[in-house]
Design goal:
Layout (H helix, E strand, L loop, with lengths): L1 E11 L9 E7 L28 E4 H9 L9 E5 L9 H9 L3 E6 L6 H4 L4 E4 L11 E9 L13 E9 L6 H11 L4 E2 L3 H5 L3
Parallel strand pairs: 2-4, 4-5, 5-6, 6-7, 7-8, 8-9
Antiparallel strand pairs: 1-2, 1-3
Length: about 200
């Protein structure tokens, strides 16, 4: 059993309900909606991704847990966010169990297309961020975060899904997206605004 990971780093959660919380980010390589290569962006299902998830290192289960644990500075409740790429292509129950045994709360940020309800049920926090017209199979969790606007998606497509929090996040690089997201949240208070505070604050 091995996992391909692009990077592991310690920072603050920049988005959503846990914005500002110290966390270790474990960024898994690969995604099912884009190869990560610029030459493939035009034909990708998700065209606006700004994350580098190509390549990385291979870890065994024990080595990955050790590498994650080594990044925690001590104190507080250790918290790890499995992100990507698409983390649920690789995150499995043995990894979640091992991280729990190491004392971590375990979160995932996923596009929701992979499903893996058995893995999701073991997680402490599930954030689903729908992309383009890819069908969301993981339709319940703690937080749904929709990059807005997207031509293929409308907030009303998701608001009946089983999430505790619903966020609109202005699409970086789209002119007027901030005002559009603010106006939509004000008109539809089922939704709250999520800002990319890591970009505003200048942290990773």
């Amino acid at each position: 059993m091995s996992y391909q990971v692009k990077e592991i780093f310690y920072s603050l959660q920049g988005e959503g309900a846990h914005s500002g919380r110290p966390a270790i980010f474990c960024r898994f390589s690969n995604c099912n909606l884009w190869s990560g290569k610029d030459e493939d962006r035009a034909s990708a299902i998700c065209k606006f991704c700004d994350t580098d998830f190509v390549g990385g290192d291979e870890y065994t289960l024990d080595c990955l847990v050790q590498a994650i644990a080594a990044k925690w500075p001590g104190g507080g409740k250790p918290y790890v966010i499995c992100t990507g790429g698409e983390p649920l292509l690789q995150v499995d129950i043995p990894l979640v169990d091992a991280l729990h045994n190491a004392g971590f709360e375990v979160a995932v940020e996923t596009n929701g297309t992979v499903g893996k309800h058995d893995v999701a049920a073991k997680l402490d926090w599930v954030c689903v961020s729908p992309k383009a017209d890819a069908r969301v199979k993981l339709d319940q969790g703690h937080e749904l975060k929709l990059v807005y606007p997207q031509a293929e998606n409308h907030p009303s497509d998701f608001e009946r899904m089983g999430f505790k929090h619903f966020f609109l996040q202005p699409c970086d690089g789209v002119e007027g997206s901030m005002k559009m997201a603010i106006d939509y949240c004000l008109a539809h208070p089922h939704w709250s605004l999520s800002l990319q505070t890591h970009k505003i604050g200048g942290f990773e």
